[in-house]
Amino acid sequence: xxxxxxxxxxxxxxxxxxxxxxxxxxxxxxxxxxxxxxxxxxxxxxxxxxxxxxxxxxxxxxxxxxxxxxxxxxxxxxxxxxxxxxxxxxxxxxxxxxxxxxxxxxxxxxxxxxxxxxxxxxxxxxxxxxxxxxxxxxxxxxxxxxxxxxxxxxxxxxxxxxxxxxxxxxxxxxxxxxxxxxxxxxxxxxxxxxxxxxxxxxxxxxxxxxxxxxxxxxxxxxxxxxxxxxxxxxxxxxxxxxxxxxxxxxxxxxxxxxxxxxxxxxxxxxxxxxxxxxxxxxxxxxxxxxxxxxxxxxxxxxxxxxxxxxxxxxxxxxxxxxxxxxxxxxxxxxxxxxxxxxxxxxx
Amino acid sequence: xxxxxxxxxxxxxxxxxxxxxxxxxxxxxxxxxxxxxxxxxxxxxxxxxxxxxxxxxxxxxxxxxxxxxxxxxxxxxxxxxxxxxxxxxxxxxxxxxxxxxxxxxxxxxxxxxxxxxxxxxxxxxxxxxxxxxxxxxxxxxxxxxxxxxxxxxxxxxxxxxxxxxxxxxxxxxxxxxxxxxxxxxxxxxxxxxxxxxxxxxxxxxxxxxxxxxxxxxxxxxxxxxxxxxxxxxxxxxxxxxxxxxxxxxxxxxxxxxxxxxxxxxxxxxxxxxxxxxxxxxxxxxxxxxxxxxxxxxxxxxxxxxxxxxxxxxxxxxxxxxxxxxxxxxxxxxxxxxxxxxxxxxxxxxxxxxxxxxxxxxxxxxxxxxxxxxxxxxxxxxxxxxxxxxxxxxxxxxxxxxxxxxxxxxxxxxxxxxxxxxxxxxxxxxxxxxxxxxxxxxxxxxxxxxxxxxxxxxxxxxxxxxxxxxxxxxxxxxxxxxxxxxxxxxxxxxxxxxxxxxxxxxxxxxxxxxxxxxxxxxxxxxxxxxxxxxxxxxxxxxx
Lengths: 347, 542
What we know:
The complex is a heterodimer.
Chain A: H1 16-26, H2 28-45, H3 47-55, E1 67-70, E2 73-76, H4 108-144, H5 146-161, H6 164-178, E3 180-182, E4 185-187, H7 192-202, H8 204-219, H9 222-229, H10 234-270, H11 282-290, H12 298-324, H13 328-336
Antiparallel strand pairs in A: 1-2, 3-4
Chain B: H1 2-22, E1 34-39, H2 54-60, E2 68-70, E3 81-83, E4 91-93, E5 98-102, H3 118-129, H4 144-150, E6 158-161, E7 166-170, H5 178-182, E8 210-216, E9 220-225, H6 227-236, E10 247-252, H7 256-264, E11 270-272, H8 277-287, E12 292-295, E13 300-305, H9 315-324, H10 327-333, E14 338-340, H11 362-372, E15 378-384, H12 389-403, E16 406-412, H13 414-421, E17 431-436, H14 448-451, H15 470-481, H16 486-502, E18 505-511, E19 513-516, E20 527-529, E21 533-535
Parallel strand pairs in B: 1-10, 1-11, 15-16, 15-17
Antiparallel strand pairs in B: 2-3, 4-5, 5-7, 6-7, 8-9, 9-10, 12-19, 13-17, 13-18, 14-18, 20-21
């Protein structure tokens, strides 16, 4: 291979991943948002601790008629006009820290934490599903080309042609009543997995198409020819040669996919076709709070802010990750595969 | 130099006029202008043969007229049955089994075709062809049951004479409520060639003061004055008002806060339903007496329990649930617009006698449940997506969970909820939310359709609990044959108790309705009919 100028060459013995980690550590902004994301994850993971040991209530438990003592004064959780109690902070030893969520009198803080678990779980699971499906389809389409590529690409085009939110809403409504039953796989309606499958499936074209392009490009590289010449079959070429060279791209797509999936889930749940009540997610909490936006705006602002911060953190960290795992590393991966060591920058 | 000054003056005056016009608010709310309204969701149907919600009846009250109607008045005055397309109230003979009416002469539909006596027969037959929820009111007509099966040959018990306008209806047995039922929208006359299909997107010709000129299901609809009313019908039916606006435009605004906001800013004249729970208190405090008025109704909000499937096929389970539900909590969920009740007949309905067989007692509820020990504890709780009824459903689900059931909440779009839970083949129809607005101001309407075993139907089922007690069915039927009097009222009170002992429902409250209009509308002139809701012909600009 011809030498390429400006390649960043690390100390001798540095792996591509080591170099990437070093680049990432230098990106303070990405790291800061990465830390923010970790804090958010810890916040939602602490939900059972808060619910059982501080708030002493579950996320779906109603307290419409109850009274609590706040700084020595008895206050109704929901008054006769249906207005819920606002944030009491530590005035009631942590109970109703952020107030009640509406006329059902559920603890807003507890629901915010449990809602975050649902939102993050759906975000990650859907992004993982999208990534796996998109990678498989991209490898098949890009490697085999011909009619295989045509069938896969046209199918993706059909899905892509639908406005993604409308498609999600349509599927959500269709599956809301009867659930999903395909062969031995049966998912009851109202299950969180319905939302995961809808989001994961609908977002596949958005990842598969660019990955397919990358596969088509990599397929022409000499290392692939060499591998084929050595007798490697299609599956070995796809998974042992092509896939490692796509890994950095896939990782970046995955992190950005988490952000997209979370936003999509928030939209579906806000519209009532995502997470089904009484279960909650940040998106459904925004929708529930909308009914009380005039009298209790915090019920919408709080989950909305959590969605904003989480998506921002994932996006900024994802950008940082992409910069760290940038195309320079492809050169180094090729070096690792036995090609001549370059000098200078690859691109 | 004068020209520029003159030009400047013209511009200034034009600008001032424009600003003045803009500051006038809703300039359409003037006599002869356009009345604007908003609905939270599109009515179930804009077809008089199919609609079975107050929203739909409000929309068509002044468009489609039956032979009889209800007085366009508030409160108990609005419960009076008066002639509409018929010249007078029916002559009842043959021991209460024969009703004779005469069609007013010269009536026309909005498309110019004459209204004929035989249109009554074809309109009733259309209900059976549509499998309308209204057929239950007319199954007692001789030949109706046979027609329901064959859909051919006509209903032999309806005899009409287009030349004289005479309509004779023979019933299988006396029916004390039949005059009330002839006043329902289901019995509105339509041209005999009206297709037997849902016409919500293309409503049929009208006989009332207004006709629907445009319908966009899901988005809204518009009315214009019915030329037939202006030309002839209005003179023939002088007791019904003409209406004060030339046009009425109704749009669907899904967000109830937006509905309130538009009224407050005079962008819309009227909203249906009343302000949402979180704004109700504020709107009432600010506008009561000027733009807001509470309307008391005799309705009922309750949770039904399917008595044909476990665990609700066990009386002890049903009674346990009744003990477990705390109606005081539901009053809060409805932000004070609900009056708690724990029986079938609400206050204000003849036959009501205060009753509470199941005062809230969670310990008692759990004790009963332990005795019943149902093996099937998986329950699906149905509710619709409109606040606060969805929260009522969520509360109810929480109560069932507290009792030890594995209760799953299913929230359904309001526009399809009733048809979904009314279809007995819908899976997992265990229990759920519903409200009942009486079809007419007679206690029989709280029993005949929602509780009699004879009312159980495969689709458009109104007896959601599917309770079928022959002795109680017979009692309902007997009372239904008799005109309402003190003896009958006492028997209805007893029937209320007997049904609550069977506990097919968990009644929890009576909801008030409210009239909320913008500042251009004269609130005092607005009529709220207890059966049909707001009378759009009564809206008048100040």
